[in-house]
Here is the input.
Amino acid sequence: QVQLVESGGGLVQAGGSLRLSCAASGRTFSRDRMAWFRQAPGKEREVVATISRSGDSTDYEDSGKGRFPISRDNAKNTMYLQVNSLKPEDTAVYYCAARGPLYISTSYYSRDYNYWGQGTQVTVSS
Here is the structure.
């Protein structure tokens, strides 16, 4: 089992930035493909970005490309999402997720991730 805890969310004005963190514990962090998802009120949970086990391969949902770089530090058991140039439509709860050590391929679907954090709220004011 791996436990995930997000932090770094908050209230920010449009155009601002935040750095979200996801701290992992419980087993070897580097064995998991990871991702950030978000869920806005009344909407389905959607992928924001994914990252490989080593961190050398990343992929992004269209709205986040160029704005939301994802990274990880396996030595610190932590994954990050730098959210830049924020827009009111970026307002959502942001979740980190791990696929599990048996899965070596990436996925953009929440159903394929077995471990989730509790989420961190990002609110962008206009």
Observations:
- Residues 72 and 116 are 16 Å apart (CA to CA).
